[in-house]
Every structure is written in C-alpha cells, then in structure tokens.
Amino acid sequence: PNENGDKFISFMGCAVQNYFALFLGGTECFLLASMAYDRYVAICKPLHYSVLMGENVCTNLAVASRLSGFFMSFGHTTMVFTMPFCNSNVIDHYFCDIPPLLKLACGNTFRIDFVVVVIFATFPFFLILMSYSGIIAAISKISTSEGQKKTFSTCSSHLIVVILFFGSACIKYMKPNSTVSPNADKYLSLFHTIICLALNPVIYSLRNKEVKGAFMRLWESTLLD
User: Fold this and answer.
1) Which of 186, 185, 191, 187 has the alpha carbon at shortest distance from 168?
2) pTM of the full predicted structure?
C-alpha cells in the first residue's frame, strides 16, 4: 500500500483473483440448480428418489457443477484479460471484479456481459425455475393446506438461498452502470460475495430443531435483558 492506503496487484494476480471469484460463483449457481432438482425428485417422485438421486448421481452432479464453473470461468477470464485496457490501471474496487474491470476496457464488452448473464446466471436459474414449477404443481394437488405447507417447508431453506444469491447477483451485474455510485457498488459486491454466502450455513441449519431452539433461547434472553 502507498501513503494513501491504495493497494497494488499484478496483471496476472488480478486475472487469478477474477478467475477464482467466477469459478466459485459459477459453481454455486449450478450447485443450487442441482439442489433444486433434488427437491423436485423428493417431492414429485418420492418412490424413485433412491434411484434418481443415488450416491453416483449426487457425485456426478457435484462434479459437473464444479467442472462447469471451472471451464466457464476459464473461458470468461481469458476473454476479459485478452481485451485491450487503455482507460486506466486503477480499479476502484476491493477486488478484481467484472464490472470495474470492464470499465477499463477499450473494446466492445457485449459478449462478455452476455456470457455472465446467460451462462452464469440465466441458464442455472432457468433450471431452478423448471424444478420449482414441477414442485408447485405437485404441491397444488395435495388436498390439505397443512400438507401443502409441510411439503413446501422442505424447500424453504434452499429457496431463501436462491433468492439471496441470484437476487444480489442480478442487482450487481445487470444494473445500468450509471445508476449506482462506486461505493454502493462495493457494498453490493460485499453482500453478494461474502455476506450472502456466509449466511448459507445459518439458513440451512435453521431446519435443525436443536439450532432453532438455541436461536429461540438466545432471542428470548436478549428480549429479557
């Protein structure tokens, strides 16, 4: 860091940082799509669940999610860092994220934006929508409202994570560049890359009765104090 607190990163270091950010984010997108399919099979085809979601199938889905993230992020990083950068060498961000990097590029960035929006976000989100369409159709056939509520509650944790992750990603990557200040953009990135993912263990563990009971006791003790 210099006397102003600015930090420096090499061109290759920035490329590696951008690659891993995309790799982890892309893998998360496809893992969420795989989890949506798991919920679809559990609710819509419960008698075939052990066959359709056996150990080999789960392993293949996990490996495919990581391979998809690996190849897509590699291709995207290659496209970004083979573009000419001529506006500046200063990234007004806390890491080498896509939007601040594209602001420094001289060429047409449309195809890069297309890859991010369509492959990393739209395609896995479409798979999730397909799974939940089938889930909602199956739940609507349940005669009692209590049964519907109980069945849909098995998807609540996953649905909250999907909304937080894809919602923050849409705001971060699909907004017009002129609508948000640089500082607000940093906060959006912070929420999407750190806070949103850090909340995942908390959200998934809330279905555990012991964890839920601990949260309730903590909440009651806080109110009494």
Assistant:
1) 191
2) 0.82
